[in-house]
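Friendly challenge for the regulars: who can give me the structure tokens for this chain first? No prize, just bragging rights.
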Amino acid sequence: MKAENLLKNRLAEPGQFIITLEYTVPDVADPCMADLESLAKLVAEDSRVAAMALTDRVPSITTHDTIDLAIRARDLSGKSPLVHLSGKNRNIDNLRERIQRFVDNDLENVLILTGDKPRSELPDSTVLCPEGFLDAVQAVDYTRKLCPDFFIAAAVSSFKYSQASQTMQYMKMKKKIDHGANAIFNQVGLDMRKIQEMAMYAKANNINIPLVHALYWPTAMLAKLAIQDELPGVVATQEMQKFLESLGADPDKGKGRRTKILALQTALCRVFGLAGVHFGGVKNVAIIKGVLDLADELSQNNTKDQLWQQWQELWKMPDGKPVNVAPANGFYFFQNDGNGLNSEIPAALTPPAGPSLHYKLMNMIHDTFFEDKIAEGKLFWKFYNWAHKRSWTAGPLNWFEWLCKYPLVQCQHCGSCSLPECGYICVESACAKHLPNGPCGGSKVNDDECEVIKGKQCAWVKVYDQAYNAGVLGQVASNYVPPKNIALKNTCSWVNMALKLDHRGRPIEPIIPEKKAPAGPAPEKK
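First reply, four minutes later:
Bragging rights claimed.
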């Protein structure tokens, strides 16, 4: 019997509020079936839960196969699961193979993520993925073209506290929606004002799509790991860690107050207008049921103001001092309402310091030597066409391009240059994950630092600064860079651009995969 796709069906109906339960797929060295089966049984029995979600290579890149476990979860629960698809160590070609396996196994709900940096057992070492990181906007676009009927969710982080970082997060969210996302799942966080901001920003910008917030069992260890940047995109404060540690002194070791934190978050997300919540970090079925029951009770018996008052009362140290769950002086898109949430009044935006001479110079070069100057039949086009037909010109042209561009943008010889689409910032050199359509969710809060490389500024903060000052932020926000052809590596991007060999002229054309027909009886011989 085909599993019910409750997640897709409910989110298609306005006013529905869904629950999904996350199962973190463990490393192949760890057993997995007991916890998987208990969660799947809860999903089957509890009508409030729309789907079980399974992560993709979170603790390592050698986890159990997510699709195999998703099939097991579906068969046990009777509900179509939400299967995470990480861009970590994945390119467009093996994405295609992965999607084919979804189709072959009747899995049609996918949550597409960029993926965090791989874990390393060695101190202060950066683990590089052999295949790199697949851009999430490209993955959404490609998956939608491959499978028009899929339910595709994508991710965002509303927990950025600089104007540049938060703007670029919402910019990329809009790109994901424009390229086929059916729903947006927010990152883990406890700043309710930021969760409310996401819903208000979407409404103010006519983004009519279901928004779901991710919840996590709140422990001092969670806060500690977030502070140490071991949980990219998750934000915590020292005060939050101390408060969560203090819960251990409760007679029940903090179980009651932790349950209420998640239940209040769930109830507040509902009144903020979100379409659901996504539970993670807890495998105990009794605890999950307790959270859901208390959330229902709180929602039925309290107004928004009463729920918010209970939240504020809950987050107090033993001496009565309020706990700050967000960095001080962080940026919000709306002004404070005086009671810790957002008012309807937009916040004033502060322009980045100084005009961008780099952008002006690069744009002048582009307008002078490229743009319409390389159109078919024009002088530069004729030269590049002539050079392309003579193999001996490849090396000199490639190195001449590199000598011109490296001092300006640290050119990496990709052969498919996306400088004009990215505010003349080279994401091949400036972004550790080489993301051409916007930032990942992992940049560090205090200084917009790259998740992967310590001390390196997020490339998309640089893009924001350049584009804002040049007055082209809206243009950058609408630009889409298709997957690059890696075969063009170490070739001249000027030739490739002129002759339409790069990502602009020859985007990869997807083929909609067909489901394999079930094997039937052999035809009778006549």
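The chain has a mean pLDDT of 90. The first helix runs from residue 6 to 11. Your move, everyone else.
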